[in-house]
């Protein structure tokens, strides 16, 4: 029987409707994860944990389910933004549905910077979209 690490257990729960993104962030931060990377092409999550006492960073790679299809889609910035708005508002019920939506918009992976409070989505040709956590981000000048 396969025993999952605590971090792998969090990633396994992400695929159920029981663990929305804010709870995922809290659970990973509690385990020392400061950032993670999702690569849809390889079906891998890489979690980076910081050991404050030693100042070292460790990594853990976790297989994650691949969404239904990974097209070589053209980058659609409005599609990426709409998918994010839909999941934030609860219109997209599961992480799997969200993954499929952003993949259809040309996303091939993303970096979630938990302590930096942002997610950077990227496409196959280097296109980027930065999404700040609600309430975070640079101060806007009037």
UniProtKB/TrEMBL annotation:
Gene3D superfamilies: YdfO-like. InterPro entries: DUF1398, YdfO-like_sf. Pfam families: DUF1398. It comes from the Eukaryota. This is DUF1398 domain-containing protein. It comes from Cladophialophora chaetospira.
């Amino acid at each position: 029987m396969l025993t999952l690490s605590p971090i792998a257990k969090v990633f396994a729960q992400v695929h159920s409707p029981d663990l929305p993104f804010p709870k995922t962030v809290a659970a990973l931060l509690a385990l020392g994860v400061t950032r993670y990377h999702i690569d849809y092409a390889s079906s891998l999550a890489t979690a980076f944990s910081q050991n404050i006492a030693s100042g070292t960073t460790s990594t853990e790679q976790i297989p994650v389910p691949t969404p239904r299809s990974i097209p070589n889609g053209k980058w659609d910035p409005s599609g990426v933004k709409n998918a994010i708005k839909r999941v934030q508002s609860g219109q997209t019920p599961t992480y799997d549905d969200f993954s499929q939506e952003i993949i259809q918009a040309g996303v091939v992976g993303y970096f979630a910077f938990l302590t930096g409070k942002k997610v950077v989505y990227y496409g196959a040709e280097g296109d980027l979209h930065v999404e700040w956590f609600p309430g975070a981000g640079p101060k806007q000048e009037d």
